[in-house]
Every structure is written in structure tokens, then in C-alpha cells.
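Forum: Protein Structure Q&A
Topic: Joint prediction for protein chains with partners

I've read a bunch of threads here and the consensus seems to be that you should model interacting components together rather than docking separate models afterwards. I'd like to see that in practice. Below is the full input, 864 residues plus whatever partners are listed. Could one of the regulars post the assembled result?
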Amino acid sequence: MIPETAVILAADLGTKMGGKPVGLVKVAGREILYRTITLLRKNGIKQFLLITNERYAPLYREFIERHDFPAEVLINSEPEKGNGHSLFLAGDHVSGRFILVMGNHVYSEAFVERTVKGEGLIADRRPRWIEIEKATKVKVKDGRVEHLGKELKEWDAVDTGFLILDERIFEAIKDLERERNGDYNLSEVVERVKVPVTFADGLGWADVDTPRDVERIRRMLVKTAVKGTGDGFISRHLNRKISTEISALLVERVTPNVMTAVTFALGIASALLTLVSPPLAGVLYQLSSVLDGVDGEIARAQLRTSRLGGYTDSILDRYVDGSFLALLAYVALNEPVWYLIAILALLGSIMVSYSTERFKAAYGGDAYNHIPVLRKLPGKRDERVFLTMLFLFCPSGASIKALFAILTLLTNLRVVLTLYLVAKKVSQPKTI
Amino acid sequence: MIPETAVILAADLGTKMGGKPVGLVKVAGREILYRTITLLRKNGIKQFLLITNERYAPLYREFIERHDFPAEVLINSEPEKGNGHSLFLAGDHVSGRFILVMGNHVYSEAFVERTVKGEGLIADRRPRWIEIEKATKVKVKDGRVEHLGKELKEWDAVDTGFLILDERIFEAIKDLERERNGDYNLSEVVERVKVPVTFADGLGWADVDTPRDVERIRRMLVKTAVKGTGDGFISRHLNRKISTEISALLVERVTPNVMTAVTFALGIASALLTLVSPPLAGVLYQLSSVLDGVDGEIARAQLRTSRLGGYTDSILDRYVDGSFLALLAYVALNEPVWYLIAILALLGSIMVSYSTERFKAAYGGDAYNHIPVLRKLPGKRDERVFLTMLFLFCPSGASIKALFAILTLLTNLRVVLTLYLVAKKVSQPKTI
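Posted by a regular:
Agreed with the consensus. Here's the joint model:
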């Protein structure tokens, strides 16, 4: 069962961020707190309790109201003390199981999706996006925290600042409150009650401590935002590597819709360029294919995905391909039979996409998930565009004819095979 | 609330059907009982009680087991008495609200979908598929049955044999059982307790009394099985009128998959025929477009629709269109610029379908339902095929060029408009 409540600790004065509450710092176009609340809500968490200090409370309140988040703000008037006291204050407002999350941590969608189902402290044995020397390490014994601290010599994993606890934790806190007059850290509580540990390795998460962290986390958000299903060989090994770098550069500056428009314009420009210089047209076509990943990456990193965005992008892609092949045939061919082949190449190119989208319309699921072997079949857009560029480097009648012939075979065979695989899949006992 | 139980009265010896239980007579490839149980289950009814006579009980039991239906068989050992006694027997097995349905009635999907939400006797003021003189008529007063009978002079509607009752009906039956020694009709019970009436007018339903009825009902099932959304002007006013007649002829003989294959073969044949005789090719293309409705109509009438069937059909249609336009361009054009236009006509033709199917993939709903104005926009397949046939009657360079130019404009403008309408629709407050 996923808990219904999340407590967010944001009382720290965070002096290294220029006096601004860290939770309201934007990374990839969205405040850290916006990210945390939005991703948790997407995964079933219904209410939020934000613990902050007196200075930041009005700013957080205004933010929460503006977004109409189901969150309450609770003030810790002694933020200079250890953050254990912040959790202590939550005790009267929380019952049953709850999520405890640090207000200065940024988590990727995949991280939250996975960890909400965990138990105790979520720890990462292969942290990818943090500075290890500044991290809090965990030594695990019998599935529970044995030691926790920044200076541990021996450790198994790193504390992700994400915990799934239940109300029993408040008993342990009461003792510490008394013993230490309210000045103790959460890590001491966790160590004392030997909270269970759940490993979640190598996913996107990081804490923001200094402005320098923001840049690294921006890259993390873009890199972990790659959708991937439906990516062909060229996309995986070339296009995505470039597009994520471009996305990391642009993600604070550009909206996904602008990128969709720019990519479409570039694609149409590449089609028109076939009239002037096929080799250049091919290169520009490949460039637009690389950029084609950017709008989606930016949208996911900015938590701004929309069905309309995906819909529009998908239709515009088909028009770019259609225009490119149409104009290339127009400029380079002159025998009826080759026009026929060019038309069939175009038909197949669009049908590759049609056959997977129509699958989703019929079955409500992603064809690449249901029939994984489709991912390995050649003929996807990234591969076709790359192939086109290669054949246009030294354009001649023969090379362009060869290109159209290969595209015709590749795409139409792929569609026939898709149809066969879908029929095979759905006639198996387990329906999809 | 839709009731969870349905009682099916099937004790009648039905002498006019050659000694076979009427419920096991096949209409459009499916037994009447199969239809009733399947459609009711689809609408939330969970258990069934079938009342029959001693002679038919073994046959019904075998049938129910074979299909693994959640149904119990109850024997009325005095089937020669009126059918009120059959319902009386159900009294010990039914509680709360329940559906009561005659075992010799055939109902369309739309009828059941609508009437399960009704109350009391479902009556039809505009019965379309029955012989009115043999029907049981209802005189309604203050929303309830006043009189019920075949010979009524004055009446408001016809009894559909479909009732939503509750256990209180058994009180009234008890009195009649005593007074009449078990020999009375259901209609007397209904009249005595003044059951409420719900009107459901003009939908598909009929009773099977003689073998002659079967033929009429077969047509009913085909005519009421037209999907309709996405049908263009030509489909509504021409193709469907012909295809439903063909479907009524074939529905007992052919499976939907065979029809899909035949239609595809005919479509590809029409494409190849462009090489020999464009006018004939156009006629055959239009014929395949008419037949294109038959597989779906038969599948729905036979309760054999499948997502794979729809998926395959949709992809094959695109290939027929693609091949036809490709070969027509090949045979009739010879200037590069007209090939270019032909390619764009093909692109647009496929994109018309792509843009609506991709909508369903993105939003999970039918584009024609969410954006009704799309139904009125020209450019759908039935219209394009018909237009193609017209332009090919007197084929000349000019007429074929005009055809391609019109198709290019019509289809691509339609796609642009679809994109605009979708964007407009989803940016309205109510999301879809």
C-alpha cells in the first residue's frame, strides 16, 4: 500500500542559495517543491505537510495556494536546531504510514514511481548524480540501518532523503527530544530505531545544496527523461546522446511547443533543400531527426508533457517524412516505375508509425511494451532518416533509386511483420 | 442500479420450430440464448436462471456448460400451463431486483444497453422488426400497465418481453397460483400488479415464433449493427444501404475474417486493374469500399467483434488505398510535378485516418465522438473512393490530374483542420 500522506522537511535556512528557500528554486523550469508534490500526487499521495521556518513560511504558503496543492504548512520556530525536531512537530498531524522527504532533494519520475512502494529508508548503492563525499552513507545490517553518517568508513549505500515510515517513529523521537532538548538530526532517529532499508539503485535523484548543483541536476532530469520505447538503433546510439545535451542546454529557456515548431520547420526546410542540394538536405534531415527528441525530453524534464503535444508531434513527423520523400522523388527520379517505388516507400514509411499507433488505439497499450521484439526490427524513423542521409552524401540516380528500393522493402516488410506479431501475440491465452 | 440476476423463461414447447428449443435456434450465427446471456453479461448482469421444461433441460444444460455461462437451470414440469407459473418457480431463487426476459426474444446490443437501466416493463411505441398483429400490446396509465393483451383495441406500445422487476412481484403471483391452480400467463401478473412502464422506442428486438421470423431478425441484427461513427456521406447514403443487404445474405455463411480477406483481395485487384482499365478499376474500387463495411457488420451481428479484426482491417485499407493511388499515378502520369502531387495525395489520404487513430491512441476516445464536426468534414475514405470512381469513368490525363489535385487538397486540408479542432477541443476547460 502506498501511503496517503507525505511530510516534506524544508525548515533549513539553506544559506548557500542566496537566502531563497531551496524548495522554491527552479530546476528545469519547475520549483523543487512543485516537482516533489506533483510526482508524489501522480503516484497516489493525497496530502502534504510542509515543515518550514518562520521566514520562508509566507513564501511557501503563497506558492502552495497558487498551485492549489493539498498541502499544509507547519512552522518550526527553531530551524537552527537539527532537522529531527521538524519531524517531531509533524507527529500530531500524521497517523499510519507516511512518506518523509527532504525539501531540497530533486527526484526523477522513475525514482518516485519505484520508491513509493518501498519501506523504510530508500538507499542507493549506485548513486549517479550526487557528490559522493558530501552524501550521507548507510551501513546496513539484516536489512536495517546500522549506521548513518557522512563520515562512515564502511558503508553499503547512500541515503536518498526519501523514507517510508509509520507513526511508531514518533515514539523514538520523543525520547530524543527530551534527552537533547530538541537539537538532533533525523539521521540519529533513523539510526536509533534501526529503520528498514529498501535499495533503489542508479535512479535519478540528487540534493541541492549550492547553485552549482542545479546545473548537474538539470542534466540528470533530461537524461532520465528519455522515453526510449520506440527508439531505434540510431536513436539509442547517436541521436539521444546529442539531443539530451541540447535539451540540457535549452531546458530552462525553451518550451516543448517551441521546439516542436522549430523541429518541424527544420524538417520542412530539409525537404525543400533537396531541390538545391540533396547532400545538405540529408544532413539537415538527420539534424531535424536528432532535434525531434528534444521537445519530448524537455517536456518530460519540465513535467510539461501533454497528449496534444505528442499528438501534434506525431502528425508533423509524418508530414516531414512525406514531404522529404516526395520532393526527393520529384527532383531525382524520372521513370514512372521508380515513382511507383517511391510512392510505396512513402506508404511504408507512414505505415510503420500507423501500425504501432493503431495498436495503441485498439489495445490501449504501447506496442513496443507488448511486443518487445518490435524494438529490434529495423525500419523505425531514426534509422530511415540516417539511411537517407548516407545515401544522399554522393547523390546519383542509382544511389537514390537504391534508397527508395530499400525503404520500400524495409518499411513494408516491417508492417507485415508487425501485423503478424500482433496477431500472434493476441491469439495467445493471456489477452493484452 | 442494474440488477445482478436475470431470469429467462424458456419452458414453452415452441411447436412451430420443429421440436427444437427456441433458445438454441441460431440467428446470425449465434443461439438466441447465447445472445441474451452475452449481451446481459456485457451490461453487468452476473447470474442467470433459466426456466425450461423437462424435455429441453438436458439440451440447455449442455449448452450452458459448453459456454461456461454462470446460469442455473430450473425445471417447470407443467410447461403446458401458462408461463406465469414459470416465474412463480423462480421465486425461491431470486431476491431483490432482477431482469425477466423471454427466452424466444432476440435483442440488439443497443436495446440491452439501454433497457437494463429501465424499470418495470420495457415497451416500444415504434416497434420496427415485429409483426404487429401477433404482438402483445400495452395500454399505459399514469406510467403503469393498465391493460396487456394481443387483442387490445386501444394501446400505447408493444411489450418487448423484457422486464426489470423486484421480488414483490412474487406476492402477486402467489395469489394467482392459488386462484388458478398454476395456469395463468405472465401478462396477467403484470396487469394485476400494474407494473411500471419504461418506453424504449424503435430499437432492435423481436420474438422468434416460426422459422420465417429468423430471416427478418437476421436483417434486424445486421441493420442495427452498423457502427456509423466515422461514416462519410457516401457511406451513410449509399454504401451502408448495400453492405447491410449483403451482410444479411452472408451473415449465416461467412466469418468476418473471410470477408476482410475477400475485401482486401478485391481492393488490391482493383489497384492492379488500373493498369488495364481505369474505369473498371474505379468501379471495383468502389465495390471493395462497399464490401469494406461487411466484415464489421457481420462481426457485430454475430457478436464476434475483435480488436485484432479492427486493427487488421484498418491497416489493409491503407494498403489498398496506397496501392490504388500508386498504380494509378504510375499508369496515368508522366510529369515529375504530377507525381509529386500524387505522392502528396497519398500522404494526405493515409494521414486522414492516421490523425483520427492517433487521437484514439493519445486520448483513448473516438475522435468523431469528441469532435462531432469531424463527421461532417469531407475527405473520408468512402468519399475519396467514390470520387475516384467518378473521375475514372472517362479517364484522361486531365481528369486524373484533377483527381490527384483534389485529393491532395481535400485530404491534407482535412488533416490540418483536424489538428486545429483537436487543439481547440483539448484546450477547453473540460478535458477529454
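The longest helix of chain A spans residues 397-426.
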